[in-house]
TrEMBL record:
InterPro entries per UniProt: MetalloPept_cat_dom_sf (IPR024079)
Source species taxonomy: Bacteria, Pseudomonadati, Pseudomonadota, Gammaproteobacteria, Legionellales
GO molecular function: metallopeptidase activity
Name of the protein in its database record: IrrE N-terminal-like domain-containing protein
Amino acid sequence: MYNARFFEKPINNVNDNFQTNLSAAIDVIKQNRSVLAKKILDVINSKKIIIHSFFNVTKEHYFKMRKDIKNEYGEILSENFPPDISTIRKIESKLEGIIYDDKVIYIRSSNNPPKMANTLVHEICHFLNASIYNKEKKINPTNLVDYYDEVRAHTGEKIFERNGSCLRRSDIKQIHKQVTDLYPEFLVSYEDALELGYIYSSYDGPGDKILQQLSL
C-alpha cells in the first residue's frame, strides 16, 4: 500500500497541473487574432477530439507509441502497462504531442501554456487535414505524403504565431526547412523541399470524414 500511495500522489499532481495548463493554453488560443484560432477552438469545443497528457495514455496507444519511438529514435520503452513515471518522462523527452486515430491527442504535461497552445494548434491541424492526408496516402503511399502533412501542421503553427498577420514567403521557406530538418526520412534524395512550394491545406474541418462526439 505504501508504494501505491507513493506513485498515486505524483501522478495525480501531474494530472492536476496538466488540466490547469491546458485551460490556460486554451485561453492563449482565445486571445490569438489569427483566422485559425477560432477554428481550433471550434474543434476543441465540438468534442470531436480528446486531449490527454501522456500520463493518461491508453494501452493501445502506448504500444503504438512504443513502436513509433523505437523506429524513430531507437529507444526501447518498457513492455509493462501502465508505464511508470520514468517511462512517461522518456516519452515526453521525445514528443511534444501526437495524435492517434485522427482524434486522440496527447500533449507533454510539463509544457507551459503558450508552448502547449502551439502544440495543440499543430496536432489539431493534423485533425483538420486528416481527410486530405488519407486520400493522398491511398493515391501515393510514400513518405512524401507524410512530409506534406507535417508541412500543413507547421503552417498552421506559423499562422497562429503570426497572430493575425499574413504569412510571408520567407515563412513558407522556413516551414519547409524546419520539416526537412525534423523529418529527413520523408524526402528522397532527389527532392528539394524548397522546390515543393505551396502545399494544399484546409483548416475548415476534416472534410468528408464524419466524426461523432467522443467520450473516453
